[in-house]
Design a protein that fits this description.
By secondary structure, this protein is of the alpha/beta class. The chain has a single domain, classed as HUPs (Rossmann fold, 3-Layer(aba) Sandwich), CATH 3.40.50. 37% of the residues lie in helices and 11% in strands. The protein contains seven helices and five strands, in the order E-H-E-H-E-H-H-E-H-E-H-H. A five-stranded parallel β-sheet has the order 3-2-1-4-5, with helices on both faces.
């Protein structure tokens, strides 16, 4: 019986690489994507479909989480706040979606239990991220313990975070090394046609490519 991993795939570079690492380790891939009314929802879903195909995923889940729109409190959903484009600043940015990864991981755990999967792979990055609290290693370790207390006794689900201590440059290099099709990924918080190049996520991505000495294959404004 092959080992299985539920891979949370946003359509971005980090989750595409984390999933490729799972595939490289011999896991059968269960691809999981969330629509939560984010600004670039259609583009992210399009990228997810391409990444899942690249991974030859055995199962695909696209879960709609409409309640995030009701909660708001983030620039990634609705028009309450503008996406900041004036550079990365200290502290938790307005693009943080309240407890998003906690909710994603809880749903992933339910799917993992259904398929008797051994692991959940998530592309969180602690050191070079946008300062999101639910990307911290301490949080991931705590929620892994909580998840395993809430599933069947014979179940042991490992949350794998292979990128957690990598820089964006390391991520670009590793993705190129593993043959990840980075043209199938999307990072921009604002646009779905050409990436804006100035939001926090675009800045981190472009910085990563520059430091890795590589050219980003997606188009920018």
């Amino acid at each position: 019986m092959s080992k299985k991993a539920v891979c949370i795939i946003s359509g971005g570079m980090d989750s595409a690489l984390a999933s490729a690492i799972a595939k490289n380790k011999g896991y059968e891939i269960i691809a999981l994507h969330f629509n939560y009314n984010q600004r670039t929802q259609e583009k992210e879903l399009e990228c997810f479909e391409k990444i899942a195909q690249d991974l030859n995923a055995s199962e695909k889940y696209v879960i709609d989480l409409d309640f995030f729109k009701q909660i708001g409190a983030t620039a990634l959903i609705g028009n309450e706040f503008d996406v900041p484009t004036d550079g990365i600043k200290p502290g938790i940015p307005i693009t943080y979606v309240p407890y998003r990864n906690g909710i994603f991981l809880s749903i992933a755990a339910a799917i993992a239990q259904k398929h008797e999967a051994d692991a959940i792979f998530i592309g969180v990055v602690e050191e070079d991220s946008s300062g999101y609290p639910d990307c911290r290693e301490s949080f991931i370790n705590a929620i892994e313990k909580a998840i395993n207390l809430g599933v069947r006794d014979e179940t042991n689900i490992k949350i794998e975070t292979p990128l957690i201590h990598l820089s964006k440059a390391d991520i670009v290099k590793k993705a190129l090394e593993l043959g990840v099709k980075l043209e199938h990924t999307w990072s921009c918080y604002k646009n779905s046609g050409k990436a804006c190049g100035v939001c926090d996520s675009c800045r981190l991505r472009l910085k990563g490519f520059k430091e890795a000495g590589a050219k980003d294959p997606i188009e920018y404004e």
